[in-house]
User: Fold these one by one.
Assistant:
Number 1:
Amino acid sequence: MPHPTILVLNGPNLNLLGSREPGVYGARTLADVERLCRDACEAHGCVLDFRQSNHEGVLIDAIHEAGAAQAAGTLAGAVINAGAYTHTSLALHDAIKGAQLRAVELHISNVHAREAFRHHSHISPVAAGVIAGFGVAGYTLAITGLALLFLAA
Ligand code: DQA
């Protein structure tokens, strides 16, 4: 498969990047992040599918779709920043597990250095890897990691 897709899936409130708590999340917008992800995907010979939703069910549908595409050999996997759903959503955990999706969990901030309620993740047990605390550069790292995992599979 010469040009597999990489899904970058962003959850609630990430549409506010750039204006939302810039001291925590930085000044770059979601459109900036999309450009950065596109460059990283191109560098690895992959095609980017970049999405954001504030709705849990929409994220779940995207994960099911991605699992099917991965099984069909057209998708390398997904980078998922589930936002606060990371800490609350059993449904996202079940979706990743059920769809057998190769997922890298991504956080812009170092969630472990923040409030205690951000220390637990429902995504981590079903993720292939986790990246947190590198700012939006973490998206590039996560895409690189996912591409390496895909090549090694
Ligand atoms: C986040 C961290 C979460 O705790 C928070 O709810 C977010 C963003 C991050 O990228 O650092 O919305 O996932």
Number 2:
Amino acid sequence: MKAPFQSRRDFIKTATIAAASLPFAGVLTSCAQNAAPGRKIGFALAGLGSLSTYQIAPALQKTKFCRLTGIITGHPDKAERWKAQYDIPDKNIYNYDNMEKMADNPDIDAVYVVTPNGLHADHAIKAAKAGKHVLCEKPMEVSVEKCQQMIDACKAAGRLLAIGYRLHFEPTNLECVRLVREKVFGDLKVINAGFGFRMGDPTQWRLKRALAGGGPLMDVGIYALQATRYLTGEEPVLVSGVETKTDPVKFSEVEESLAWQMKFPSGVIANCSTTYNAEGLDYYAAYADNGWFQLHPAYNYDGNRGNRSDGQVIQFPDIDQFAAEMDDFAQCILENRPTKVPGEEGLRDVKIMMAIYEAAKTGKTVELS
Ligand code: NAD
């Protein structure tokens, strides 16, 4: 099998995205000039919840170009624990109301926003105004307007904005992109994709519209949407959708399950689904002129694997996707180059997800420009 990093070049219209991010190239020059050999990008994590605790902080210890230098939290008790565990000095500990003071702190180059979706813009904009680069978790925000505000703020501050799309750095997904780009099975025609799980705690923010922006589509369906976009390298032009609810009490504010279809300019059709009420939905299957390939699981932190119609298996050694994503972000800053996962990429997903919600609500197909 081909080395995974060769296929990175092919991933998701790199050229288009790079072009979209080029405005950063000039403004990042001063950072690149500051790049002393061996310099590492100092990260402050905003939001010390599950993802920061169990994935991002451990991943930071494995990076080559990053170091954990600060935290932003509303919980003083958590600050004490993190301070002890990661040797973070008091002067690098902030809360959501004093983030602007980071402007005077050279230990912190970048803020990784890992708070609930509906707070991303607030925290990202505060970080940008303090002169920090911003890596923001998916989904970028809960509305197109807030995504645009984040892009504008980072642009005005001359700072890089990237979205935490970890699968853009993951070998099995990159291999599937290569299969399409190199037309190993001919032209792609149909994609089936889905991601969902059974939601436990009924009190969490993921079920609150204001903080989550929506249900499983915003949380995990976005991975299936992303897969259709990076596999095709195209933007959907038509979407339709259907929503269903079997537990209207638990899912009073957000959708429980949603299925949607998309048409791409080349004629590819995608059938996608997402749910907060079933286990095991974690796959995509792509059908082309002369064969097919599939990943199942497709979107996990590790263990993604699949197979092909010619009998070959798609499998690579696991990597730490968060470490790869953060190292790439740091290298973009240090080397003054654009990211392949810019804010514009996050905005496109949010725009499409809003169209999917509209289609499901109205029962009408929605055209995307
Ligand atoms: P979480 O609930 O475990 O953590 C959220 C953190 O935000 C907590 O520390 C909480 O204290 C803090 N917070 C600040 N203000 C808050 C408020 N008003 N209400 C609630 N919490 C508040 O959530 P998580 O699973 O760590 O998710 C955080 C972000 O990361 C989300 O945007 C999510 O979509 C994203 N995420 C991405 C991945 C991935 O694979 N890339 C995986 C999980 C989560």
